[in-house]
Each structure stands twice: as C-alpha cells, then as structure tokens.
Amino acid sequence: MSxxxxxxxxxxxxMIGLFRRSLASLRTRGWQATWQRIRVHTRALPPxxxxxxxxxxxxxxxxxxxxxxxxxxxxxxxxxxxHVAHTLACLRALAAHPPQVACEILVVDDGSSDxxxxxMPRIEGLRYEVRAHNGGFIEACNxxxxxxxxxxxxxxxxxxxxxxxxxxxxxxTFQRVPDAGLxxxxxxxxxxxxxxxxxxxxxxxxxxxxxxxxxxxxxxxSALRDVDYCSGAAVMLPRALxxxxxxxxxxxxxxxxxxxxxxxxxxAAGKRVLVQPASRVVHDEGTSNGTDTSTGIKxxxxxxxxxxxxxxxxVLAGHLAPGSVPGPAxxxxxxxxxxxxxxxxxxxxxxxxxxxxxxxxxxxxxxGLHVVFVPTxxxxxxxxxxxxxxxxxxVWYAPFxxxxxxxxxxxxxxxxxxxxxxxHVASECLPLLHRYAPQARxxxxxxxxxxxxxRRGAELAGDAALLRNAExxxxxxxxxxxxxxxxxxxxxxxxxxxxxxxxxVQVALISNLHEVAGGGARWEQRRDLVFVGGFRHPPNVxxxxxxxxxxxxxxxxxxxxxxxxxxxxxxxxxxxxxxxTQPGVQIHGFVPVVTPYMDxxxxxxxxxxxxxxxxxxxxxxxxxGQPVVATTCAVEGMHLRDGEDVLVADDAxxxxxxxxxxxxxxxxxxxxxxxGLRNVADHFSLEAARETVRQVFTQAARSQG
Length: 705
What we know:
Layout: H1 3-29, H2 31-42, E1 74-80, H3 84-96, E2 103-109, H4 116-119, E3 127-130, H5 137-147, E4 152-156, E5 160-162, H6 166-176, E6 180-188, E7 194-196, E8 199-201, E9 207-209, E10 225-226, E11 234-238, H7 239-244, H8 258-268, E12 272-283, H9 300-311, H10 313-316, H11 328-331, E13 337-342, H12 352-366, E14 370-375, H13 383-391, E15 394-395, H14 404-411, E16 417-421, H15 423-436, E17 441-445, H16 450-461, H17 464-482, E18 486-489, H18 492-501, E19 507-509, E20 527-532, H19 538-558, E21 564-567, H20 573-580, E22 585-589, H21 595-600, E23 601-606, H22 616-623, E24 628-630, E25 647-648, H23 652-664, H24 666-683, H25 686-698
Parallel strand pairs: 1-2, 1-4, 2-3, 6-12, 13-14, 13-16, 14-15, 16-17, 17-18, 18-19, 20-21, 20-23, 21-22, 23-24, 24-25
Antiparallel strand pairs: 4-11, 5-12, 6-7, 6-11, 8-9, 10-12
C-alpha cells in the first residue's frame, strides 16, 4: 500500500467513523452532548502552555529563611566558590517554594573571598559549612555529603534556580521505581530552552546533552527515562548508595566527568540512572568555569575524558558510536517498544477503563518495556499526560504530533507491538500500521464488546434503529478482530459470546486491573450509599435515572436518614433535574479523589440495566472492602455469587429490599466485604493478569516475510 493511500484511508475512516458515532450519539445522548463531541474532534488545538519559569529578582541582600528540619529526609548539598549572587538566587528559590519533604540545605564554602562569608551566616535555617582549604568541586561535594544527615542526598550547583516541586518529583521517582539509583533533573536555560534532559555517552567517552536548545515540552525529552548520565548540577541518590560508592571519584579532581563517572558506577552497582523531567531546574551553564576548554579549570574536561574512557572502556564498547544522532529509536534500542493508540490518554480518576489502561501501562513498564502513547486527538490534557510521562511513557501531542500518519511513517519501524484501543480507533489506524509498521504485532483492546453493549441498550429501549446500528458496529468490530493478531477481552462472558460470533479470532483475557486497598472503615463507622461512574457512558446515565427515579424512594421509606452520593464527570442536566426532586440525593459530579467514598460509605450500588464488559465501579468498591448491591448485568463475568460475594436484584422493589437488608445486617455486610477483597485479589489484581500480559506483549513480533 502506498504512503499517500494509507494516509488517505486513515483520514477517510476517521471522518466516516466520526459521522457514524455522531448519529448514534444523537439517539442516545441528545444533540448538545453530540455537538460537544464533534467539537472536540474537529477543533484546532491550543498551543502548549507550561508554567512560566520562576527567576527570583536580583534585590540587595537582606536576611531570610530557608527550609530546615532536624530530621531531614533529604540533604541538599550546594558547593560554592564565590559567585554569591548566584548562590542567593538559588537559596531564594528554595525559600520561595519550599519542598514538601523534610530537608536540610548545606552550603559548602570552598574558600570564597566575596560576600559569601558575610551573608550566608545570616540566612536562617541554612547550614553554612566552611572548608579548611580550597580543594575544588569534587572535594567540596564529598565533604558536604559527609556532613549531611538525610537518607537521600542532592548535589545542587549554586548557579541553579530550582523550580517549584523539583525536589519532591525527584524523591517520588525513587518511591515509584524500586531499583532507581540516581535521578537527575531536566536542566533549562534561563530563557526557557532545554539545556539537557539527561546525557548520552558515546563509545569514545564523549558526551551529548540530549535535547540541547530544543523545547522542554518536546515528547522526546519530557518523560522519565534511563540515561547514560545526568549532569551533577542537580542529581539525587540514596546516601547509603553514595557511601557504598565512596562518593565522587577523586581521580577527576578538581572537576569534570565526575558526574558521568558516578552514573556509570551507580549502574555497575545494579541500579538505574534516570532523568525526571517533572523536576525542572534552571542552570546558568558555565558560571563557575566558563565554556572554553583550552584554558583554566575547564581544560580538565578534555583531560578527564581520557581518564574516564580508560576506566570504563569495556562498558563503553556497547555504547553508540561517535557521530550517531540520538533519538528515541536509538536510545531505546535495547528495549522492546510498545505503541498504544487511543483517542485520549487515560484519566484514571474519571473512568474505570482509564484506570485499567493506566495499570496495564504500569505493568508493561515493570516488565522493562518502553511504552509510547499516541492519542489520536493529539491533545496534551495536562495532569493526566504528565502523570504518564512521570512514569516513563513517551507521550506525543500537538504541535509535535502533526498527524498520526506522518508520525507512524517516522516511528513505526521501532515497534514490536502496537495496541489499538476501541474498534473505531483500530479501524482508522489499521491501514497505517500495514504500511508503516508491518513488523509489529497488532493487538486490539476492545475495552468492552461495543456491539454487545449497543445491542442490549437498543433492546432495553425497544429502538429498532439503534438495533440496526448495533449490528453495523458488530460488523466493523469483528472486521478489526480479523485483521488483528490478538483481541483483548475483559470478561469470560465476552469470550463465550465471541466464540459463537467469531470462533477463529485469537483472544486473550485482561480484565480490570486493581490494587487491593484494604478494608476501610468498619460497618458501624460507615453510612449512606454511593455510585461512581462517568456519564459519557450511556449505561451509567440509564442506571441513575432508574435508581433515582424508581428505586431510591423505596429505600428512603425504610431508611429515612440515608443519603445517596452520585459521583461521576459529565452529569447530564436531566439527571440533575431528576435528583432535585428526590430528597437525600446528592449529585457530586467529578470528584478528584473518590477514596473517602469507598472507605467511609457503607454500600455501593451498581444498578446497570444494560452494558458489556466488566464493571470497574464494582471492582473499585470491592477493592476497598465496600459491599455492592448490583444487577445481573453489572456483575456479569465477574466470578461473583449472589448472597456470598454480592447481592443481586433486577427490579426496583427487589433492589431496594437488598440495599435495606445489607444496610442493617452487620454480619452479612462483613461477609460480603471480605469476599469482595478476595475476588479482586484472585481475578482483578495486577498479579492475576501478569502472565497473560507477558504473553500478549512479549511474544515475538510478526514476520515480515
């Protein structure tokens, strides 16, 4: 298939798919929600806007205070030799935006002769440590760390301006990545351009500052990544590891290549060296020693390169050759690379499908795979995009992602696996994958069987047009499966359905993925009822109209003080209007953190009358020890037994009776709470899915023969 034809088919499939989904949306969601959906798909994207850099004003010195703890978790060591104006700017930034973690700040004076000696003692909370004699940068760092008291140590140049949140982002990386040994910040020039997002070392010992002069928002430089080294201008490592490595190697005295050597030593000790772009630090490069390598201390950079190359020669033999141009394909050449195509990045605080996808990505990263995410809407959605990047996912978005076809033309050959999420995305992208990534294993993630959900909704509504649309969806969805190597389903019930509809399709079961949170509050400490679910999903809208309109009044008649908490984004106006007529109903809309409602509310309800797949709202409650009253549809394919793990009822009177019974019966409540926790651990935990995930994503790529 030619390049132009593949791109044209992608565009045509995309427009046809949008038209079809818009017609279906008109019937199920109404014109306002449909128009909003069309606008999202067709609007021009706004330019990216990061927080402006914080650069403190150069005002005359006056005493101020910096963060200080008598029991620091982190020690920030700042070696100085004159240049007091830079030191003041660095300390003022730390004072203006103090880290959340308990820390101490040590300024290690290596023989300054300017105002450093007068001003530093006047800064409250600062540990001003004066060395007996000048020994250079390496000795000052080693001496400063020896005097520190924190569990983690940070080397920070005095010509830096740390940005808000920089230190906490470094520490959180150690908490998320158990084998992290050294984590460095993304370094920026004062004008906002990128100075370095980690460094590359070539086989001759020469180095490359990755991303220099580029945009720090560029997806190539914006995600957590293993690197050859991080500049010592801003790096963190555990104090115990520092001591085990004997600090900076003094053979590089007075300075240069000691930070590169430290990174290689960390890796030789079995730990990872990472750059965390969520930690931003402005660095006025060359303040101390200039940039001319022919004279002065800077000349040691040339000499020490030879020392470094000789010391690490066996390791360097496997590095990129000088003259190579580093990019994602080369830098991740030793990893299996997986591409995920979906409309948007997952927002796990908004819907269960996103939570499943987010946890699947975490599992892939834990297996050592490099994950790339391309949202076909090309949006950077703020915190959700940045959350993936902080995990180590290479996320692409406009303006760096001009189009999916053009991007795949450049990047397609590097992927062993491509996962397409939802049938309309897969239909659009399959021609491009045939053309630009023929070697990749094609995985289709249904999320749920759309045609099954649509068919059930049409049957409940008695709508013949919707039923015909469900059959068209079935045809398209099965066509995608036939053109994929593996189809991922979320429930055994769907697998049984597909065995009847398409017995030749190769399937794998990766259900909802949850971490078992624990039991939460006891029965007597809990009260009220809760439902959690996003309202872009038609089954949730129908469920709440039925529960609030036909069920809840029966419950209130027997439990007059009970409150019902309805949580979920995009609540339609009609549901707000209905809730206003029912005493005790609280419509909360989107809630960023739902954990208190799981841990403190007595019962969750799942009154879904149609749908498909596995219901994340049921898993989420059970993972917190919160019992559930549900319909038969809501517990389909979830290995749950009525009366033992969950209470099941399908008409209004029976549903209300089940809620009242469970609300009053402490023994039954405790039984279902414990059973729910076991169910999640056995069937819906990350560990339960691990072997299937390995089979789907680590098998050999397809043959190109």
